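[stage:ingest] chain + small molecule (flavin-adenine dinucleotide)
[stage:ingest] validated
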Amino acid sequence: MNLSWDEERIRLGERMRALGAELGADLAAREQSQQLRAGDWQRCAQEGVLGLAVPAEYGGLGLDPVTCALAMEGLGRGCRDNGLLISLGAHIWAVQLPVDRFGTTEQKQRYLPGLCDGRLTGAHAITERETGSDALALTARARRDGDHYVLDGVKRFVTNAPIADVFIVYANLDPDLGFTGVTAFLVDRDQAGVTVRPRHEKTGLRTSPWGELTLDGCRVPAGRRLGAEKQGSRILTTTMAWERALILAPLLGTMQRQIDECVRYARSREQFGRNIGRFQAVANRIVDMQVRLEAARLLTYRAAWDLAHDTVSIFSEVAKLETSESAVSTFLDAMQVYGGLGYTTEVDVERNLRDALGTRISSGTSDLHRVLLADKLGITTRQRRTTPEPVRALHHANTR
Ligand SMILES: Cc1cc2nc3c(=O)[nH]c(=O)nc-3n(C[C@H](O)[C@H](O)[C@H](O)COP(=O)(O)OP(=O)(O)OC[C@H]3O[C@@H](n4cnc5c(N)ncnc54)[C@H](O)[C@@H]3O)c2cc1C
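[stage:predict] done
[stage:export] tokens:
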């Protein structure tokens, strides 16, 4: 794996960090009202963030996954609004990516340019009241009716739902087939039979709007089916491999910023006549934070590297598991470093901690990730499915 960045990539990372620092105004107030700042979303569109991974012919930058990880880490380093970063990730990895990978030319032309330039916002709707971790055991139904499909079902916890113009919706076309009957659809918000309700106050990531999507006899033109009939399971697997690898890349930047702030605090806060960083307990705690971050960072880039090389591996799940768990541990440690101040809303620690808790659940819980890894490692299946191979030979840049 070659992570020796060229000048162009270094500049991209710095540009994203500077952009991130511009974003997130009125964060405390918007946390209360659970609002994403529309101006920030548009700034990200102007700077190419929304189109990082989309091919240039559809209005994006067409960057490879490793460079995307670098850009998003840079954005996270500058940006304090973790909710915005998660909303961007859902839009990019769970909507643009499957449209690009599985969409028809007509679908790509219709959706991708608007999803890149900020005219359209996307949301990914799979979770239901009865189905979460067992994601494909859907109760949402699709039925063919002439040149349309009719969709019925209720999706919940859908990130971006209140602001979305287009949803990727999963529904079962043939329940007798179980998960192999699942099919994906592109559903426009303004279609008859679509209702969106912002539901549930969140613990963290409060500036990332989410909600419930109800489809009630919603007639979707056959041309809006994404992929083939009954290909939903494959589309979801591909989407999740990308989302799990990359959606938490900004959190690496957030963790680094938090650690830098802890170092500054430990060097300036005095107790017993000396800086608290002089106490080994405090110093070791911060060292452990950095060690955890370095592990999460390498795993994220390794997962991105494998995506760039179309290598089926364990690293998307490993990276997501490690980064989300590391983030929670890191922000807990940061709270301890700051003492009572860390428990107040005067510093970012408590908000980062609340935000990080959500990342252990979204895109599959940590428990589910261990289940998936046990499966991939052949612990719970008869055959070992994936061998953790050494990284492939050096390879560069735009692989798409
Ligand atoms: C911040 C955030 C954003 C989200 N965004 C979206 C979105 O954009 N679109 C969308 O469709 N959904 C979204 N979700 C929903 C998310 O995907 C689900 O919450 C998640 O998959 C877990 O499902 P569940 O909540 O139904 O929990 P359940 O599946 O009911 O799990 C409950 C508990 O049981 C454990 N468990 C379940 N199965 C197993 C198993 N086999 N082995 C061991 N333990 C198990 C879980 O780990 C958990 O502890 C989001 C969630 C969050 C928190």
